[in-house]
């Protein structure tokens, strides 16, 4: 068989897509990050009605697509920029609250189970809050490395890979940033505060998921 690894991932992504669709998510498969950007920009967003306000939550996968800068510079949208580090912490929190009322919210997810559940862990909660309720539409960008066998595997991945790597990326002073795994975290820099497990999408197809056939994000 030519390229068995590609064949493996094609089969696995197709299976996860089917299970997510069975849980009422709207799902697309992209070959790579650039393809994911094109699907969002040319297929998903034009099909949505009356999109005026756009915002986003922390996601290395979303940022890596380049879509952040395209949308930020597009004058037909009012952008609620929750990544603006030029404003005070209080203003950043106000922007994050405002983003919960936008028309379209873009972000990623920490993990997806084989049977089609989203698993997330947040510091502040604006990202998981928006995925759960608020914005009229949500687009999630998800690398294939986020797929986990089951809920236990997903939660282990989040605590012992995604969280430590994120703390290192953000220069947080937490035990996991030094050890590489989760343990005894009482740090004021802790980023792991609120879990969500999204078993099904409601209303149906409110959340659109782009599964990316390459590793992306933490």
Automatic annotation (TrEMBL):
It comes from the Bacteria. Pfam families: LUD_dom. Residues 14-212 form the LUD domain. This is LUD domain-containing protein.
């Amino acid at each position: 068989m030519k390229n068995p690894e590609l064949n493996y991932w094609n089969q696995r992504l197709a299976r996860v897509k089917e299970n997510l669709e069975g849980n009422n998510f709207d799902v697309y498969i992209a070959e790579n990050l650039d393809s994911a950007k094109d699907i969002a920009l040319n297929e998903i967003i034009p099909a949505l009605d009356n999109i005026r306000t756009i915002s986003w939550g922390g996601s290395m996968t979303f940022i890596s697509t380049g879509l952040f800068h395209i949308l930020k510079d597009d004058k037909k949208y009012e952008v609620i920029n929750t990544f603006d580090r030029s404003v005070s912490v209080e203003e950043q929190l106000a922007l994050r609250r405002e983003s919960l009322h936008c028309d379209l919210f873009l972000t990623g997810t920490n993990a997806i189970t084989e049977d089609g559940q989203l698993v997330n862990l947040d510091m502040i909660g604006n990202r998981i809050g928006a995925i759960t309720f608020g914005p009229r539409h949500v687009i999630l960008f998800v690398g294939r490395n986020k797929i986990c066998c089951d809920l236990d595997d997903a939660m282990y991945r989040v605590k012992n890979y995604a969280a430590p790597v994120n703390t290192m990326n953000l220069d947080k002073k937490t035990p996991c940033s030094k050890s590489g795994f989760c343990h005894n975290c009482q740090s004021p820099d802790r980023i792991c505060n609120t879990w969500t497990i999204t078993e099904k999408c409601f209303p149906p197809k409110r959340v659109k998921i782009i599964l990316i056939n390459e590793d992306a994000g933490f």
